[in-house]
Write a structure and sequence with these properties.
homodimer, mainly alpha, two-stranded antiparallel ribbon, DNA-binding
DNA sequence: AGCGTCATGTAAAGCGTTACATGATTTT
DNA sequence: AAAATCATGTAACGCTTTACATGACGCT
């Protein structure tokens, strides 16, 4: 079903950034070091090989800017294939696996999807997220109830997980209201 | 300073589980599949090599249970060296890096440290965590304030990060009160 | 003259994922 | 009799980390 079974978070973060605006490997490195996207940590030994592989895959292509300059930078842009990939990726349904293993990728999707697939799809994404989170929290609570004679610290650690998902759930509700309101206002100026 | 620069989450999770009670590779696999520790996902191709490496490092050692049985299981226990490693690891100070890149490891520490280093140290751990989280949230809020003309979705994604840390902060406060109360009560029966 | 930054990479080693392999036992 | 479970692993591949390497430019 899903076109990409697995894309690494680093690859996705890179694609998202050069979707927003084409840039060089060095600029990507800076972005990861200096912005709140920091936890897609990255050394040149991760970024440059990743760029090469994605160029080989035909998702991005580099063009040397200012070839005469003595310090030429290779500016990377998405190819049509790369754009198509991202579009498909952004529109995939959310499954429980995503919540547990790939929350970071869900947040990347949310932060970067609107320009490519529209605000409507972003709202749909949030509605799916709310659905998935609600059901996941319920099942975690069920597990928690069965842990009554486990060590207190273990129960509390699970409690932390539950509260994190609940916090994300509240955030999704709030963000959805905000986006929905803004989208309406854009419709009626 | 820090004795272990980097231990993988899988290695740490395995050590914690066999600290709680010695067990086989297969049992570890089951634990990761069936308990809320699920996100230390794991296939045999991850667990068995990790066990082998940790045996080579001298942290754990295996003893075949029921050697006569046709289905012998190799039960792994911590060595003295492994226990010493874990003890040191549990007592390391919390740094901002841990919050951003290794929250899962912090939760493992919390869940499993008490039997080895005592409730007092666990409370100290929570106090450090509260300290680190407070300061991290402040700095994220400062970043957020500078993002006023960025796309709404980007700002909201950062907001999600902030709220997650705040939720963890609330949890740490609550857990500390609970543990402190319980520890007191154990003192005066 | 030296240090920091721009800019791109390579090499080695370890870790994780997916898939495959084996063989006995228990359940349906 | 077939399927699931117990129990342990290996092989190939890709990704990440750490460290190293190169060279030009800009500031002090």
């Amino acid at each position: 079903m899903s076109i990409d079974q697995n894309i690494s978070s680093l690859r996705l973060a890179i694609l998202c950034l050069i979707l927003k605006a084409p840039r060089s490997g060095y600029q990507l490195k800076k972005d990861f070091e200096e912005t709140p996207m920091g936890h897609f940590s990255s050394s040149p030994g991760a970024i440059y090989p990743a760029l090469k592989r994605m160029e080989d895959d035909g998702w991005i292509s580099g063009r040397v800017d200012n070839p005469d300059s003595l310090r030429p930078a290779k500016i990377l842009s998405l190819t049509d294939k790369g754009i198509a990939f991202l579009k498909n990726y952004f529109l995939e349904p959310i499954v429980e696996r995503d919540l547990v293993y790939r929350m970071d990728q869900l947040m990347l999707r949310f932060a970067f999807m609107s320009p490519l697939v529209g605000r409507e799809s972003t709202c749909a994404f949030l509605r799916q997220l709310i659905e998935a989170l609600s059901s996941h929290v319920s099942s975690l609570r069920a597990v928690s109830r069965e842990l009554e004679n486990d060590p207190l610290e273990g129960v509390l650690a699970l409690q932390h997980g539950i509260e994190s998902y609940e916090s994300t759930l509240r955030w999704a509700h709030d963000s959805l209201s905000l986006l929905a309101k803004q989208t309406q206002m854009q419709g009626k100026p």
